[in-house]
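Justification of resources, computational component.

The compute hours requested in this renewal are based largely on the per-chain cost of generating structure records like the one below. Each record pairs the submitted sequence with a full structure-token output. That output is archived, and it is also reused by downstream analysis tasks.
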Amino acid sequence: MKILYYDCFAGISGDMNLAAMVDLGIEPAYLTGELKKLKLKDFDLLFTRDQRHGISGTRADVKLKKADDQSHRTLSDIELIIDSSDLNDNIKSQSRKIFRILAEAEARVHNKTPESVHFHEVGAIDSIVDIVGAAICFDHLKVEKVLASTVELGGGVVTGAHGKLPVPAPATAEILQGIPVSLGSASFETTTPTGAAILAAIVGEFTDQVVFEIEKTAYGIGHKQSDEIPNVLRVFLGSLEEPADSKEIIIECNIDDMNPEWYDYLMEELFNAGAKEVFYTPVIMKKSRPAVKISVLCTRDKLDEIGKVLFSNTTTLGLRSYTVEKKALERRFTKLETEFGEVTLKSSYYKGERIHTKPEYEDCKRLAKENNIPLHIIYEKIKALLEGSG
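The structure output for this chain reads:
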């Protein structure tokens, strides 16, 4: 299993995360090209080499060409920017999820609704670049699981739009509820609300006890110099042995009184909450009422979050769940160069023998749009390449 592991011994910020992704191998030209799809102007994204305490890595800087006069954007303002872009649906969904986490945290702090919160620092162009850039990088890496260590928060005070605040900032503390954290390794803010929201959105497991094979190590250099700890974010790309047999949970409910238009949104929210699979089955309930059975496959640690989504977004009054045995083939991801561009291949193996290889749909869709040709042509060309290579 291909994994990404965040070693947050010195915390995390949005720019440190972007820098670590580029240090890991994401091409700056690819990242900036995708960010241009936001149609935001007046900024440059620069990457340079730097070091802290002798550790060399990449530093990211968002340079504004002029003052951002709309830095106090609302959640709906930012969602409009994202939804109006030409980014793929997965990137849009992940970006909205991160901003939603931030909005809900700020709302709890200020006793408002998420929709009425005015983002200050987080609504500025540089923060939008950090967050959407993070979603672009995760989509491109195609890892199967993201893990992270205990998150160091730092100490002291931080100055923001509301004046001086204790570290961690109130929004950071709200976001990281239920996530293992540590305090005091440094006398400054090591984890920002943006960094915390990125972790909360994409990390499936927080643990300091994980055994995996390292393929690559990357360092995102923070802007602040400190004699206490190296202000860097360390990220590992690696592989984790996945047991062929495992137990997962199926959560179900039957619905006979819900607007059918809601099901598409529900499925998206369930996947955002960590569902492994979601499917709908037509059924007949009591009094011969046509209905839909909603089935969600997830790991046990996602049970509460999936339940919350179902109760919040459907008309059900109850849920049932049961454990199922899962047998899975080993999966490996590789890259293939084609005449139309690079595509990710997913191969499955049984006892070390390759059984299937298929291209990732989102990559094929992107290539079809970029080259203005039918999607099936992309699939046919890739199939011919694979057959030619044996």
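Residues 191 and 361 are 35 Å apart (CA to CA). Residues 245-327 form a domain with the Alpha-Beta Plaits fold (CATH 3.30.70.1380).
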